[in-house]
Design goal:
single chain; about 400 residues; alpha/beta; Rossmann fold; 2 domains; eight-stranded mixed beta sheet; six-stranded parallel beta sheet; 13 helices; 14 strands; about 30% helix; globular
Length: about 400
């Protein structure tokens, strides 16, 4: 049995973000169905324990070791943390992995790559965001807007950096480390092409498209009953407040519509990390607003059965967009911007309304107005729902890629 060491910033029970969901879902399947001995390394923040102490636990059939990090890492420590590297190598020497698969490793860094190779371990990377090429991780500039570069320019990036020399040094180091990996994986064609445009090697880079949790067998009847019980169009939104996820556009668009026959259902996903996005003064629209707690992967069917339209007016170019695929698999219409990897499964007029990236509130308002007629959703089903793949298919492909480097 081959041994697989997986690194990710978060892991259950502290689950946050799309990358973590992908890691959790594929780790369990690689262990259960694809004959990998899996060990996950993640982080925790426990002030009652010594700095960089280790806690081992098992969850959902997967062994996990959490490294107690003291707080937010800054500067060079964020990507070259020698204390973290020592712990990772200690674990690797004991576990003797054939492959180390790095996912979202901000804070964990990658200073341990060379020593892993000395141990005979292959290094695989899945780039879930732009951390490897952008100091700010999501290509959001210091003014809070997407910078919209394709080939990143050090001079332009320096305008967003507190220390331009450090930023140049960081980018050069991470580019070298990324290109030294045995396998590079990306969740979408868009995200792979972005990294290729910025000097990442083509030969060992592939798309391992994310899967999603597919609807349970009883979903269609659940959705039909929920549709019958509501008498207005229900819009769902999973992103938080602020400009980048598009919530400001949503609030402004609804306030430009002279109708109240709808419900805006906002998921308070920040509850997963002990915070909250609930703010009634922020979400002031003419219609009704309903806040619901964050949903787990195993109960998401009830959320999607309760909405007609998913709003996803993202103002940055995302690497994938799990929520969009979860909606598409469940016959929920999507209103989205043409934002990077998000749009790769959207077909205008068939399963989505898509506005140009960078478009304003008026375009979003027009799409919302077109969706306000409840009758159009009573019998709607997405004819392309079957094209959305689940985690079983992703894990099978991922296992093949990982074995390919051995």
């Amino acid at each position: 049995m081959n041994r697989l060491l997986i690194l990710n910033l978060y892991y259950a029970p502290e689950s946050f973000g799309g990358a973590t969901i992908v890691v959790e879902q594929t780790a369990r399947r690689l262990s259960d169905a694809h004959d990998w001995a899996v060990l996950v390394v993640t982080t925790m923040r426990d002030h009652s324990m010594p700095r960089y102490a280790l806690r081992r636990y098992r969850i959902n059939g997967v062994d996990v070791i959490a490294i107690n990090v003291p707080g937010e890492s800054t500067g060079e420590e964020e990507y070259r943390n020698s204390e973290i590297a020592r712990r990772v190598i200690e674990i690797a020497r004991a576990f003797q992995p054939d492959v180390c698969h790095c996912h979202a490793i901000q804070v964990l860094g990658c200073e341990y790559f060379d020593e892993l190779r000395q141990l005979g371990t292959k290094v695989a990377i899945t780039a879930h965001d732009c951390w490897w090429i952008c100091e700010r991780q999501f290509m959001i500039n210091s003014d809070g807007f997407y910078c919209d570069q394709w080939v990143l320019n050090d001079a332009q990036c320096g305008q967003c950096s507190a220390d331009h020399r450090m930023q140049v040094k960081r980018n050069a180091y991470l580019k070298q480390q990324l290109n030294s990996a045995d396998l590079l994986l990306f969740p979408s064609n868009f995200h792979r092409n972005l990294h290729l445009a910025n000097g990442i090697g083509r030969e060992n880079s592939f798309v391992n498209k994310n899967g999603v949790t597919l609807p349970a067998p009883g979903y269609l009847s659940m959705r039909a009953a929920a549709k019958q019980a509501r008498d207005v169009t229900v819009f769902g939104f999973v992103g938080g407040p602020g400009y980048i996820k598009g919530s400001e556009h949503i609030v402004r668009a609804f306030n430009q519509i002279d109708r109240t026959d709808y419900v805006l259902q906002v998921v308070d996903a920040a509850g997963n990390i002990g915070s909250s996005w609930v703010d009634s003064s922020y979400w002031q629209v003419p219609g009704a607003v309903k806040f619901i707690p964050p949903y787990r992967q195993d109960v998401m069917d009830s959320f999607f059965a309760g909405i007609d339209v998913l709003l996803f007016p993202s103002q940055w170019k995302e690497s994938f967009g799990l929520t969009v695929r979860e909606a598409l698999a469940r016959d929920v219409w999507v209103i989205s911007t043409d934002s990077g990897g998000v749009a790769e499964d959207l077909q205008v007029g068939i399963n989505a309304s898509v506005t140009p990236f960078g478009s304003g509130v008026s375009e979003l308002r027009a799409c919302i107005e077109g969706a306000l007629d409840k009758k159009q959703w009573d019998n709607y089903s997405n004819p392309l729902a079957h094209t959305i793949r689940g985690y079983d298919e992703q894990a099978q492909e991922l296992s093949g890629y990982l074995r390919g480097v051995l």
